[in-house]
Amino acid sequence: MKIIKNKDISWIDISKPTREDIEFVAKQHKFHPIILDELLHTSTRSRVEAHDQYLYLTYHLPVYDPVMKTSRKAEIDFLITKNKVITVHYEELEPINNFLRNASNNPHFKETSMDNTGKLVYTLIEEIINFSMRQLRHIEENVTGLTKELFSGKEDAMLRKISYVKRDILDYTMISRPQEILLNSLEVAGNKFWGEDMDAYLSDLIGDQLKVIQHLESYQETVESLEETNSQLLNAKTNSVMQKFNILAFLTIPAVIVIQLFAVNSFSDLFGEKSLKVFLLSLIIVFVITIISLIIFRKKRWL
Question: How far is the C-alpha of 97 from the C-alpha of 93, rounded, in Å?
Answer without folding.
Answer: 6
